[in-house]
Amino acid sequence: MSPEDSSTGLVDALGLARAPGLVAAVGGGGKSSLLFALAECLPGRVVLTTTTRIFAAQMSRAAAVCTTADEGWQKQLETFDGNLLVVGRVEGERAGGVPPDLPAQWLARPRVDWVVVEADGSRMLPVKAPADHEPVVPEQTSLLVCVVGIDALADPIERVAHRPERVADITGLAPSQHLTPEALGRLLTSPQGGLKGAPHDARVAVLINKVETSAQRDAAHSIAEWVLRESRVERVAIGALLGDLRAGWEIRSR
Q1: Distance from chain centroid for Cα 231
Q2: In-domain check, residue 120
Q3: Residue 47 and residue 77: Cα distance in Å, rounded?
Q4: Which domain holds residue 42?
Q5: Which pLDDT score is estimated for 5?
Q6: Could you read off the pLDDT of 34-57 as tens digits, one per residue?
Q7: Which CATH number is 146's domain given?
Q8: Residue 224 — very low, low, confident or very high, per pLDDT cuts 50/70/90?
């Protein structure tokens, strides 16, 4: 495993310098933050969406928003600039997802350079293991990003994980125990964990979020070492999505 430029930006850290692309985010610890961060950083016009659901309050972070319940919503795909968030019906505090076949159809449009999909839910917890019906990853995804917060190591599994019983089953730990970097690496690369639903032809990256201190960075390096034993994972990006998106990101690869 080799470290690369430790001051690269988020786009380069994820290998997204060249359009077009369909990016799907799964896991926990910052998927929505990644969605809107890529809207800010990716070159060209970006469609944002979810195949699950997001909080309606987050919709204001997009430059423009439409729902598939709106009459004539598809016309916005022909006229928007910057980024456009497309969601399903808004009910109360939640905005519903779109069918998983739609993102690839949008990417095929001449005015769309990128589509970024939040394809999983974690109830704002730093780590998760998916249920049988999760995640909802479009088959045409070109990059799958499995997101985890470094704070997943800070407390027992039962406090940091969404579906802690599934996390415990995959890692072999009790819900009352703390995740170790090795156990977290196994979870992120398990076919029942971070790689569940990964399309056969998709590139795979792991993003370790909320890394701000030297101790957290050391822990992230240990996680990356275990993650990169899995041949499907191309790279690990280490940084903080609420920090500088254009610098300060570290890439780990074989």
Answers
A1: 19
A2: yes
A3: 8
A4: 2-51+114-253
A5: 44
A6: 999 999 999 999 999 999 999 989
A7: 3.40.50
A8: very high
**For residues 14 and 90, what is the distance between their CA atoms, to the nearest angstrom?**
31
Q: How many domains does the chain have?
A: 1
Alpha helices in the chain (DSSP H): 10-13, 31-41, 76-79, 102-107, 157-160, 164-171, 181-188, 214-227
For residue 200, being part of any structural domain is answered with yes
The answer to whether residue 141 sits within a structural domain is yes
Q: Which residues of 19-49 are buried (b: 16+ CB within 10 A; e: fewer)?
A: eebbbbbbbbbbbbbbbbbbbebbeebbbbb
DSSP letter string over 64-98? SEEETTSTTGGGHHHH--SEEEEES-EETTEEE--
In a domain, 81, yes or no: no
Q: At residue 156, what is the residue type?
A: P
**C-alpha gyration radius of the chain:** 17
Q: Cβ(204)–Cβ(234) under 8 Å?
A: yes
Where do we find the tokens 């992230």?
A: 220
Q: Which of 113, 98, 106 is nearest to 51 (CA)?
A: 98
> Residue 80 contacts by C-beta under 8 Å, 6 or more apart in sequence?
45, 63, 64, 111
Alpha carbons 202 and 179: distance in angstroms, whole number: 28
* 87-111 confidence digits (pLDDT tens): 999 999 999 999 999 999 999 999 9
What pLDDT digit, counting tens, does each position of 236-254 carry? 999 999 988 999 999 999 7
SS3 150: helix
